[in-house]
Design a protein that fits this description.
- The protein is mostly helical.
- The protein has twelve helices and no strands.
- The chain has one domain.
Length: about 220
C-alpha cells in the first residue's frame, strides 16, 4: 500500500513537472490575458511569443538548422505554400457570410490595432509569428503521428478563443475543424519533407494572406 502511494506521488510530480504537457496552454494564458483582460492585441501576441521563448529556453530544446530547413522535395514546399495562401483568399471571399459585426473596426482600434499601428502589426504577425509557432508547435511539441493529436486540437483551440464573438457559432466550429486539420497537415508535410520548412513556408503564406484579407476587408472600407 505504501509502495503504491509512493509510486502515485512520483507519477503526479513527474506529470506536473513535464513541461511538454503544460506548454500547449501558453497561448491560452497569455493571449487570454492580453485580449480578454487587458484588451490589448500587442500585449497578447508579444506575451505569447515571449512565453514561447521562455519555455524553449528552459526546456533546453535544440533543433538543428538541418531539421528546420531540411528539404527533401521542393514540390512539397510549393504545394504547402499555395495551400497556405488559400486561407486568406477564402476569408476574403467568405467575409460577408461570417456574420462579423459591422463595428469590428472599432473593436480592433480599442485593442490597439489603430490605423497607424496596423501596418507594423501586419509585418510582425506575418513574419515573426509563423517562425516561432512552427518551431514551438511542430518542433518542440511536434509528433510523427499520422493521426490528429491533442496538440493539433489545442493549437486550433486558442485561435477560436481569439475570434469567439466575432463570427457565428457554426463558423467557429468550421474554423476549429479546419485549423485542426491544418495543424495535422503541417505535421504530415514536415514528416514527408523531413524538416520544418514545409509548415514554415505554408504558415507564412497563410498568415500573410489572412492579415491582408482582414486589412482589405476592414481597414480599407
Amino acid at each position: 500500500m505504501m509502495m503504491s502511494k509512493t509510486k502515485l506521488t512520483i507519477s503526479t510530480i513527474n506529470f506536473i513537472s513535464n513541461k511538454r504537457i503544460w506548454a500547449p496552454l501558453a497561448p491560452y494564458l497569455t493571449i487570454g490575458t492580453g485580449l480578454l483582460i487587458l484588451n490589448n492585441a500587442w500585449i497578447a501576441i508579444l506575451g505569447y511569443h515571449l512565453s514561447i521563448i521562455i519555455i524553449l529556453f528552459f526546456a533546453r530544446i535544440k533543433i538543428s538548422l538541418k531539421q528546420i530547413y531540411g528539404n527533401k522535395n521542393h514540390n512539397i514546399l510549393i504545394i504547402t505554400s499555395i495551400l497556405g495562401g488559400f486561407s486568406g483568399l477564402l476569408l476574403y471571399l467568405l467575409w460577408h457570410f461570417l456574420t462579423i459585426p459591422k463595428d469590428i473596426n472599432i473593436y480592433l482600434h480599442n485593442i490597439g490595432l489603430t490605423t497607424a499601428l496596423w501596418p507594423y502589426f501586419m509585418a510582425y504577425f506575418a513574419m515573426v509569428n509563423p517562425l516561432l509557432e512552427e518551431y514551438y508547435w511542430r518542433g518542440y511539441l511536434g509528433s510523427n503521428s499520422k493521426w490528429i493529436t491533442l496538440n493539433d486540437l489545442l493549437f486550433s483551440g486558442y485561435h477560436i478563443m481569439v475570434i469567439a464573438g466575432k463570427i457565428g457559432v457554426m463558423w467557429l466550429i468550421i474554423v476549429f475543424i479546419a485549423l485542426s486539420l491544418g495543424a495535422w497537415f503541417w505535421r504530415q508535410a514536415n514528416r514527408w519533407n523531413q524538416g520544418l520548412s514545409a509548415s514554415i513556408v505554408s504558415h507564412i503564406s497563410g498568415d500573410i494572406s489572412v492579415i491582408l484579407a482582414i486589412y482589405f476587408s476592414i481597414i480599407r472600407t
